[in-house]
Amino acid sequence: MFNIIIATHGQLAEEFLNVLQSLFGHLNQIEALGLKDQGVVSFGNKVDQLLATTANQSVLVLCDLAGGTPFNEFAKRSNKYSSDFFLFGGVSLPVLIEALNLRMQNQSLDQVVEKLQQLTPLTMFKAQDRKNAEDE
Questions:
Q1: Closest-CA residue to 90 (of 117, 62, 124, 114)
Q2: Which domain holds residue 30?
Q3: Domain count, the chain
Q4: Could you tell me the pTM of the whole model?
Q5: Given a cut of 70, is residue 133 above it in pLDDT?
């Protein structure tokens, strides 16, 4: 089983984890890390501590913004991994649920990454579809 790390600005990562635990119950090998008021140096130290516990394991890191500080701090440290390491920006609750569902189905990290890359980030409701939605 691979590790999942959720890294965001503020408390979003922790809130994502709270919601996931309400849906799935207790979760192993998943961590949430938020960049709060502590600053980049302190956040980087927390990233180092977290990565020290997963350095020889496969890891999927899901961040809020590609190019944001949490994303960049993990990207800078990606060379420390001898195992599979995948970093995504643009995390959402549907992406997290999909990743966990696939992991629970014993999909490999490579398979999960392939499927996550196929996800569309948004579902759009078109006004002209309103009649069909009301019929359901």
A1: 62
A2: 3-135
A3: 1
A4: 0.87
A5: no
